[in-house]
C-alpha cells in the first residue's frame, strides 16, 4: 500500500523576525506531518513558536525558509490569489480573539463565511441549524456581539469556522478566554466535527487539559519540536 500523503506537512520550516538590527528566530527547522482525520494539539510555553507555526501552516504568513504543503500543494508555489482561494475553501480558522464583526448579528457573522469562500449555493442551512443547536446558540442568532457573552461569541466564531465543512480546522487558543463550561462546549464540538465529518483539527493551546482532546500532542520549546506523542488508539484505527 502506498504511503498516505499528509494533509498538512511542514518541511524544515524556519521563521526569523528582524527587530532593529537583530535577527530573532521564532522557528528553527520545524518539520511535521498531519494526516487526514487527525486531531493534533500543539503545546508549549509562551515564545515557543507555536502561534508562528500556526500562522505559517494556515498560509497567513510565509516561512523564512522551508516549505508547507496542504493536501500535496506547496503553498510557496501558489500565487497570492491561489493561496487565498485554497485557504478560504479548505481551512477554517478559530482564534482566541473572536474576530466577529460588531455591526452584524451572530447569523450575519456566520453567513459571511459563505461569501468569503465564494459558495454560490450559500450555506447548508440544515447543517447550520445542527451546529448552532449543538453549540447552544440557536436562540442568539439575532444578537450582535455586544449583546453576547464571551463564551457565546467564541461559539459563534466556531460555528463560522465549521459551517462550510472545511477539510482543516486550525484553532489558536480557542478556549484561552473561556471559562470551563464554555471551553468544554468548544472542545467537544471540535472533537465531534473531527469524528463525524472527518475534519482534520490542528489546535494550539497552553492548557494541558485541552491538549488531551487531541489524538497526538506535539510539544514545542524555543522554536523547535521537542516531542510528539501518538495516541495508540488512533494509530490502531489507522
Explain this structure.
The protein has 238 residues and is of the alpha/beta class. It has one domain (36-59, 83-237): Rossmann fold (3-Layer(aba) Sandwich). It has helices at 50-57, 80-90, 106-117, 125-134, 150-162, 180-197, 208-211, 232-237; strands at residues 8-19, 22-34, 39-43, 65-70, 73-74, 91-95, 168-172, 200-204, 216-221, 224-230. A 6-stranded mixed sheet has the order 6-7-8-3-9-10, with helices on both faces. A hairpin with a 2-residue loop joins strand 4 and strand 5. It is globular and about 50 Å long. Mean pLDDT is 87; it is low at 231-238.
Q: Topology, please?
A:
Elements: E1 8-19, E2 22-34, E3 39-43, H1 50-57, E4 65-70, E5 73-74, H2 80-90, E6 91-95, H3 106-117, H4 125-134, H5 150-162, E7 168-172, H6 180-197, E8 200-204, H7 208-211, E9 216-221, E10 224-230, H8 232-237
Parallel strand pairs: 3-8, 3-9, 6-7, 7-8
Antiparallel strand pairs: 1-2, 1-4, 4-5, 9-10
Helix pairs in contact: 3-5, 5-6
Amino acid at each position: 500500500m502506498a504511503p498516505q500523503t499528509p494533509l498538512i506537512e511542514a518541511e524544515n520550516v524556519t521563521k526569523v523576525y528582524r527587530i532593529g538590527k537583530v535577527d530573532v528566530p521564532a522557528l528553527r527547522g520545524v518539520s511535521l506531518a498531519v494526516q487526514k482525520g487527525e486531531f493534533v494539539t500543539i503545546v508549549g510555553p509562551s515564545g515557543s513558536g507555536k502561534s508562528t507555526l500556526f500562522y505559517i501552516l494556515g498560509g497567513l504568513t510565509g516561512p523564512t525558509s522551508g516549505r508547507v504543503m496542504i493536501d500535496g500543494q506547496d503553498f510557496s508555489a501558489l500565487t497570492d490569489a491561489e493561496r487565498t482561494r485554497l485557504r478560504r475553501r479548505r481551512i477554517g480558522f478559530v482564534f482566541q480573539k473572536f474576530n466577529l464583526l460588531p455591526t452584524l448579528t451572530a447569523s450575519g457573522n456566520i453567513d459571511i463565511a459563505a461569501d468569503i469562500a465564494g459558495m454560490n449555493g450559500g450555506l447548508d442551512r440544515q447543517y447550520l441549524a445542527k451546529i448552532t443547536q449543538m453549540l447552544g446558540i440557536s436562540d442568539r442568532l439575532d444578537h450582535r456581539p455586544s449583546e453576547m457573552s464571551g463564551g457565546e461569541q467564541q461559539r459563534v466564531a466556531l460555528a463560522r469556522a465549521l459551517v462550510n465543512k472545511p477539510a482543516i480546522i486550525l484553532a489558536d487558543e480557542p478556549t484561552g478566554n473561556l471559562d470551563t463550561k464554555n471551553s468544554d462546549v468548544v472542545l467537544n464540538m471540535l472533537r465531534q466535527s473531527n469524528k463525524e465529518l472527518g475534519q482534520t483539527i490542528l489546535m494550539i493551546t497552553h492548557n494541558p487539559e485541552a491538549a488531551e482532546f487531541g489524538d497526538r500532542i506535539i510539544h514545542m520549546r524555543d522554536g523547535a519540536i521537542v516531542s510528539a506523542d501518538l495516541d495508540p488508539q488512533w494509530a490502531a484505527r489507522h
